[in-house]
Design brief:
Shape: globular
CATH class of the largest domain: Alpha Beta
CATH architecture of the largest domain: 3-Layer(aba) Sandwich
Number of strands: 23
Number of helices: 13
Low-confidence stretches: 16-31, 71-79
CATH topology of the largest domain: Rossmann fold
Oligomer: single chain
Largest sheet: 9 strands, mixed
Distance between the termini: 110 Å
């Protein structure tokens, strides 16, 4: 080897020792191996290569490449929170006097099961502009007014923008802290410094952790940030409420594990072009999962609707029209009166259309089959449209009879008595099955001024002198009992 190459090699080796002597950070860290994998942004499925369709959830074009770097960034504290607690006997565990804290909004408390549980992690999801930030800012103002220390983390808006909304809502308190931040480590440091009673994070998709190399909003970031927030809530007994975005299909953006990690999942529903909003609980470890809260969006924020039946029935015609029926559905412990409208018409196309808004499409097809087979109503060459007024989604089987009567009366061009409510589930043989909470349903109908109720024959034991009760066994009997004398 020539002397020139030896000199260059000696200089290079000497340079390495000099850099190491002065603690140059590049050579003091272990070399990290950079890897990449493709992760589905809908369900979190991971694969080594790109796939056009996710094998787990079936979504197309949802796999995004995320870089995984084994090399940890400098000066980053460990992401985990060590819990040194020991196992306890359940009889020795003491529960404080304030297990639940009221949000100051009764409809919100109904969804939560009585109020916010200390140390819980709550996820609120909904479409953009539906009112998620508004209701949480109102809740923060109410809690701060009761002396609770609130930290409102705004990851999408500046502090001045949050202040503008707070002024419009009339919120001002010495206990409400606004913190515009997207870094998870900085948020955790502020939580440890302030030690608040409640933390609001708006939103989880905009938060990122420095321990994860992928960008904010990715599956890895959402999972990691939610895990850190969950550990903070459980170890420090702090109530944390997180806002989450939804996809175009209406599902919460991010991995499905996000819904499993939190204690409560709440959806904000409703048409953003209308004033009413529906708050629905999809998961609740501390309360009923089928409760709903009704709100109306106004200039000064969200207003509770004490009597939702007025909201859903205020636009119906008192004279009655063909294809309209009033049902009493149960949403949790609350009975709601809802109008179902149907439109049946001859189609010029070979295949008739079937459209269902607010009811399950498969359920509607089943009801159409029963009407054709058991009632003799030929709908094979007619379009059928079913719509639930008010934008509410109905999943309860007790709405079957109302849907069937709305379709049948529109097809025959007859009118349902406007003072009649309809309750019942339809079997495939045309029989009417009983429903639960019949007493509450009838009392709600009486309060709203209805005079007649069509109920299943199996529920005939119920007694109420304030309303005419007509028990029916089969679908044909129910249709005959519902037709208005004028029709």
């Amino acid at each position: 080897m020539s002397m020139i190459y030896l000199d260059k090699l000696q200089i290079f080796i000497a340079g390495i020792f000099v850099l190491d002597r002065y603690n140059f950070p590049i050579y003091n860290q272990p070399m990290g191996k950079v890897k990449s994998k493709w992760i589905c942004q809908q369900c979190g499925y991971e694969t080594a290569g790109y796939l056009g369709k996710c094998p787990e959830c079936g979504a197309w074009g949802s796999l995004v490449e995320e870089v995984q770097n084994d090399l940890k960034p400098l000066n980053i504290s460990p992401q985990g929170i060590i819990n040194n607690s020991k196992p306890e006997l359940i009889k020795d565990i003491k529960i404080g006097n304030e297990v639940r804290v009221s949000s100051g909004i009764s409809e919100f408390d109904r969804i939560l099961g009585g109020g916010l549980v200390q140390g819980s992690l709550v996820l609120i999801a909904g479409d953009p502009g539906i009112g998620k930030s508004t209701i949480l800012l109102q809740t923060s103002g109410n809690l701060a007014g009761k002396g609770k220390k609130i930290l409102y983390v705004s990851a999408e808006e500046s502090s001045r923008q949050v202040k503008l909304r707070a002024d419009r809502l009339g919120i001002s308190s010495d206990n409400l802290y606004i913190y515009p931040q997207t870094n998870m480590e900085s948020i955790r440091a502020q939580i440890e410094e302030l030690n608040p009673d409640t933390v609001v994070v708006d939103s989880i998709q905009a938060i990122y952790s420095q321990t994860i190399s992928s960008s904010a909003g990715s599956v890895s970031q959402i999972r990691e940030c939610c895990n850190i927030l969950m550990q903070i809530a459980k170890t420090q007994n702090i109530t944390i409420v997180v806002i989450g975005h939804v996809t175009k299909d209406g599902n919460i953006a991010g991995p499905k594990i996000l819904e499993h990690m939190v204690d409560t999942v709440i959806y904000f529903e409703g048409d953003k072009y209308k004033s009413y909003r529906i708050l629905r609980s999809m998961k609740n470890r501390f309360g009923n999962t089928s409760e709903v809260g009704i709100f109306e969006m106004g200039v000064n924020g969200l207003r509770e609707v004490k009597n939702p039946n007025e909201l859903f029935l205020n636009e119906r015609s008192q004279d009655g029209i063909p294809g309209s029926a009033i049902i009493v559905t149960n949403e949790g412990t609350r009975p709601l009166l809802v109008e179902i409208q149907a439109l049946v018409g001859t189609t010029p196309y070979p295949s008739p259309r079937r459209v269902a808004n607010g009811v399950d499409y498969s359920r509607m097809l089943q009801i159409l089959a029963v009407l054709e087979k058991r009632v003799g109503l030929n709908l094979s060459k007619q379009d059928v449209y079913v719509n639930v007024m008010g934008g509410i989604e109905i999943d309860e089987p007790s709405a079957d009879l109302g849907i069937a009567i709305a379709i049948a009366t529109c097809a025959r061009d007859v009118v349902v008595d406007s003072q009649t409510v309809i309750i019942g589930e339809i079997g495939l043989s045309g029989e009417i099955h009983p429903v639960t909470n019949i007493d509450k349903r009838l009392n709600e109908a009486i309060t709203s001024g209805f005079k007649k109720a069509i109920i299943p024959y199996a529920n005939k034991s119920v007694k109420n002198d304030k309303i005419q009760i007509v028990p029916v066994k089969r679908l044909m009997d129910a249709i005959s009992a519902c037709i208005s004398p004028q029709g």
